[in-house]
């Protein structure tokens, strides 16, 4: 005897671009994002009995995202994600939970002739602002905000020593090293009882994202890091202090290694230790350090 123990489905990689035209000021603002939708509910028979009467077509989900993007603000993404998720739960009574993921792609206004250009933009990095909003019948809306793919590096101010040494350990202890990582940082908000509460919190979302990014960058730069673990914990503590409505902060930091190159084979050329200037960037394998800090 078998049973369907879990099921959800949806539309992924919905590409959305929206322009807001301020005719009075003569300027335009743009937002580009990738949206994913997943629905959960009384949909078992679509799997077990080929009963499509319970299916909201994934193409319908795509169309819904476009219509809601026209009818509502898409910024901040926490609000738009909550609007989309709540729509599916409120509209289809057999759908009990909707998960919406949003990736916001950077478009930064150009400066031309010393002043901001009214309608021209450039992408100044691969890092993204991400959101996951989950609307659940009878519970409310859970929101997780995030920074993803923020590549950072510092050429000194990081150490790693005092770790376990045994018959498997070959890594030398170092008091100064290059530290680089691609930052994925997320923070989970206290559950919002309904969409109205999300709307009331709108000013806090941008402030929190800006604070988290600033804390991440400044702590990375200033901390005389004893380990990635300790540095990321300090970041989490500061974000929780700065944003009272956040209940947990998580980081995932992969090491981007840079290895010294021994050049002594070429006429005794010194390029290790305090003489190291030329390094070989490594792709893999790499360390991966993760943590979640909660109140």
Structural overview:
The protein is α+β, with helices and mostly antiparallel strands. Helices cover 26% and strands 37% of the residues. It has six helices and twelve strands. It has helices at residues 44-48, 58-71, 77-91, 195-200, 202-222, 228-242; strands at 9-22, 27-41, 95-105, 108-112, 115-122, 128-136, 140-154, 179-189, 246-254, 258-260, 279-281, 288-294. It has an eight-stranded antiparallel β-sheet. Helix 5 packs antiparallel against helix 6. 26% of the residues are buried.
Please count the beta strands (DSSP E, at least 2 residues each): 12
Number of helices: 6
- How much of the sequence lies in strands comes to 35-45%
The largest β sheet comes out as: 8 strands, antiparallel
Which segments are poorly predicted (pLDDT under 50) over 5 or more consecutive residues?
none
Q: What is the distance, rounded to the nearest whole angstrom, between the alpha carbons of the first and last residues?
A: 44 Å
Question: What is the ordering of alpha helices and beta strands?
Answer: EEHHHEEEEEEHHHEEEE
Helix residue percentage: 25-40%
User: What is the global morphology?
Assistant: globular
What is the structural class?
alpha+beta
Strand order of the largest sheet: 1-2-3-6-7-8-9-12
Q: Tell me, rounded to a whole number, the average pLDDT.
A: 97
Rg on CA atoms, Å: 24 Å
Which terms summarize this structure?
alpha+beta, 295 residues, globular, eight-stranded antiparallel beta sheet, two-stranded antiparallel sheet, 26% helix
